[in-house]
Structure formats: C-alpha cells, structure tokens
Amino acid sequence: MPLNVTSSLANKESLTHFTSSSPLAGSSHNRPHLKQCELLPLTRRQRRLCRKEPGLAEVLREAVRLSIVECQYQLRSERWNCSLQGRGSLLKRGFKETAFLYAVSAASLTHTLAKACSGGRMERCTCDDSAGLESQRAWQWGVCGDNLRHSIRFLQSFLRQKRGGRDTRAKVDLHNTNAGIKAVKIGLKTTCKCHGVSGSCAVRTCWKQLSPFHETGALLKAKYDNAVKVLGATNEAVGGHEMGNFAMLGHSYAGRNPRSGDLVYLDESPSFCRPSRFSPGTAGRPCTRETTCDSLCCGRGYNTQSRLVTFSCHCQVHWCCHVECQKCVQQQDAYTCKQ
Asked: Count of CB atoms within 10 A of residue 221's CB?
C-alpha cells in the first residue's frame, strides 16, 4: 500500500506490538529515539525522517494507542467492533471498515503530533504560529496553541504517496487518509481569555486548541455510517497535488459524488456474523436487548444472565462536606449473543 505507516499502524501486528504493555511502559520507551524508529513498521524514507525528528517515534506509538481506543469505542455496537483478529486480511480489501481504519489512524497521527508540538515534546516544532488574528486590535497570542499547521504539513510529507500508487485502491486509501486529517482540522477552535480590569476584555489572550479526540472520532463514525461506494475508476496518472480531492479524479459512484471529507470504499462488507478471515464473528458479544441485540446477534438470539448489583442510593449531604448514602441492591440482566 502506498501509505505504509497508515496501513501498518492499523494492522494487527503493529497494534499488538504497541499495546502489549501499559501506554508508556515497555523497554523501547527508555531507549534512544533511533532505536525506537527501528522498531516501528516504517518505509526506509519514513525511518530516515523518524531519525531526524527526536520525539516522533513516541508520537507514532501514542497515535497507535489513540486510534485503537477510539476505533473500538466508536464501533462498539457494530458487528465489526475494530477487532484485532483478522485485521491484516481486512486491510487488503476496500471495505468501509477499512476506510474507517485509514481515517482514524491518520486523524490520530495528526492530533497526536499537533499536541506534541504544543507540549514541547518535538524539537522541530513548537506552539501554533497562526497569524490569522494578529491584525485584530487588542488580541494577543500568549498561550501555547496546538500546532495543526505543522502537523498537517509534516504528515503530508511523511505519508507521501509512492509514484506507482495511482490505482483505484491507492486513491481510495489516500482519500480516506485525507478525510481523517480534515476531521481533525474541523475541530480546531480559537480559545480566548480576558485580562482586562473588572472582567473587561480590553486585552485578550487567544490560542488555537484542538477538540477532544472523541469528538473527531464521533465525526468519523458519522462519515462511516454514510460512506460512499466507488463503482469504478481509471488508472491514468492524476495531476495536481497528491493530497488532492478524490471526487475530482474521474471516478464513478453509487449515488452522490463524495466530498473531500467523506469516507469512500470499493467493496461491500461481509456480514461479520460468523468467524472468518476478517473477524472473530459476534458470538458471545454483549448487547443491549432493546437496541443492539437483534443486529449484533444476526438472528441467532441471545443469552440472558441475571446478577445482583450493589450501588449507593438515597444519598444526603450533611453540612458541610459529608455525604451519607444507603446501599441498595438491584437485579440487572446482561445479554450476550448466542453461538
């Protein structure tokens, strides 16, 4: 695949490698960054860039963890719940699940790198240097903002498409990568604080701040639900920027033409109901009887298990700072999909 780091960071082997221990634990964390770069699944060119950027290897590792957590959270109620099992086979196909993996991986890279810049963890970038509000009177840039401009500029070079990667699948993967980057960009907001006398805003300190990554994940989940299928494409060379608009590359679609921020896919997804090379299936998955059991269990039905749960109830606050609660017991039912 042309975007080696995006597909590699989404693959089972990479995810398993980086999540086998606690987030900041592991022997590689305490090694020099050159050694960390050697452990990452990068192309030769990407590894050279990694060696030149102290701090980048740890950013890539954090991006892996962030993408795993968010992918599994957003797809927790789907038949394919971002399972690591079968990930390699899934990435070889053009499913909309593959599109989501590319997008969330690219988004986590973008978000994590921008945060690392503003946090002083990268040598070649610092705070946001946007000049968009400098001309407005009484505004000052004083707080270290998230440097999204550097993050996107660096990643466009880091994830650069190979010359040979001009077929339909390469374009789809690149488009979904860009959609993930754009989703992060949408969440960039300007935050300000007033410093004037008596609460006036004679002077304001403003900075750029990214939305929590959960918001980006929710946006990508909405795009996943409305992904656009690509019916066909030409294999001719495409001019212009490599990170350009997929909708302008001469493809045909089922339904509407996709926008630059949409997710696109090539192949209809399997049902994911039974174990296959793509997933472990849905047997044993917990579900909610009213909402998700019918879909997740694929008509096989579900098992019900009752249990007693103890929780605090009838709490009262006593002056000044003491809270007294009673212990209540309630029966709860848990549902899991049948085999």
From this structure: 18
Please say whether the beta carbons of 300 and 339 come within 8 A. Answer: yes
Judging by DSSP bridges, how do beta strands 188-194 and 286-287 pair with one another?
unpaired
Angle (CA) 212 216 217, round 5°: 110
Q: Give the SS3 label for residue 335.
A: strand
pLDDT in tens, the chain (339 residues): 334 556 655 654 443 333 333 333 333 444 567 888 888 888 888 888 888 888 889 999 999 999 999 999 999 999 999 998 888 999 999 999 999 999 999 999 999 999 998 888 888 787 876 555 443 433 455 567 788 888 888 888 888 765 445 688 888 999 999 999 999 999 988 888 777 676 677 777 778 889 999 999 999 999 999 999 987 544 333 333 333 344 444 444 555 678 889 999 999 999 999 999 999 999 999 999 999 999 999 999 999 999 899 999 999 988 777 889 999 999 999 999 999
The encoded tokens of residue 152 equal: 């996107």
